[in-house]
């Protein structure tokens, strides 16, 4: 007799946990976006005048520091989440978010204190990198453990819903400020506004997360033998196969995600020749639809499993990237660009909607947060964080199509992993779930 469908069909979604666990991603990615997009306005505030390119390069260098800090944040905060609890880690990451945004908002300019202002900016980016590195794992682990079996794919998909929403809010605020303030005002003080908004939003998220309950799976670890080893590198190495799998399955997904999101606007403008305003509108509309697709795909994975969606992305990324990017390079208007951009994002949805839950379902509770955090952060820094640089390197070398094959190749490597990995949908994460599974098997 097969197991009854009640695990999937009757469980309720804990919406308070879903909102509290995922909304921090919105603030995180909002802050990440506004730093990059408003750099043209505040670069001159922190570095000597006279060479605008040098100012932007210095600001971009500080931005890059955030990516290098993400693996460090994944290690430190992943360990913290495994040793002190998911709720504690979620409140810590959002505290770091608020502090980093507030530091940028109040940072003194070069004209008043010299390079000290740039030092404040650097410290803020270090904190932001730590926060981003830890937020992903804390959020993914909490959403997975706090949601009943049969609803985890749906609930964890809100991680990318909130991430995309953060980018859309940041883009929307940028459009509003650009239309209501002069460029001089934006360069003088207007660039501080989005960071003040970010700090305030993080404070609200901190309040929401204070009221969250700790997950049952983590609570079962309290008082058990071997608690000193929770969240250690030694324990992670005991599950090194799963850690390597996380890196490999992330490789193609994160590269494709950054290609069709953060790099898309520049690609449509620089390669296809669309007006920057048109390229921005295409990105906004495509991201909005992409955001709506995440829960649908997550819910589908609860019914048919995680592997079919991952394999669909792997096949699409391997065989579809080159023709899709080639076609995007030749678009001449909004409609064609939006249609092709959405095609790419539909493929990526097979990865983004469930990548958090798949990784969390691979590891045991005592090393789950670190197991998700550190391998993911390493893969994201190597492949996601370098996507734009590699793309522009190929373009500068006159072989832009080489980047398309690079993305397709990384997708192919991930596809092999998707085909060979075990299905994780029915993983029992707590003793109660294991007991329920045993009862179902005996029945």
Word description of this protein:
By secondary structure, the chain is mostly helical. The chain contains 22 helices and no strands. The protein has helices spanning 6-9, 15-46, 52-84, 86-106, 110-113, 116-146, 152-156, 158-180, 183-188, 193-210, 216-219, 233-237, 240-260, 264-270, 276-304, 306-328, 334-352, 355-362, 368-384, 387-396, 401-420, 431-442.
Oligomer: single chain
Question: How many angstroms separate the termini?
Answer: 7 Å
* Helix amount: over 70%
**Cα radius of gyration in angstroms:** 22 Å
Beta-strand residue fraction:
under 5%
The chain-level structural class is mainly alpha
How would a textbook summarize the main sheet?
none
SSE ordering: HHHHHHHHHHHHHHHHHHHHHH
> Low-confidence segments, ≥5 residues, pLDDT <50?
1-9
Count the helices. How many?
Answer: 22
Shape verdict: globular
Strand element count = 0
| pLDDT averaged over residues | 86
Give the helix/strand layout.
Blueprint (H helix, E strand, L loop, with lengths): L5 H4 L5 H32 L5 H33 L1 H21 L3 H4 L2 H31 L5 H5 L1 H23 L2 H6 L4 H18 L5 H4 L13 H5 L2 H21 L3 H7 L5 H29 L1 H23 L5 H19 L2 H8 L5 H17 L2 H10 L4 H20 L10 H12 L1
Helix pairs in contact: 2-3, 2-4, 2-6, 2-8, 2-10, 3-4, 3-6, 3-19, 4-6, 4-10, 6-18, 6-19, 8-15, 13-17, 13-19, 13-21, 14-15, 15-16, 15-17, 16-17, 16-21, 18-19
Descriptive key words:
443 residues, mainly alpha
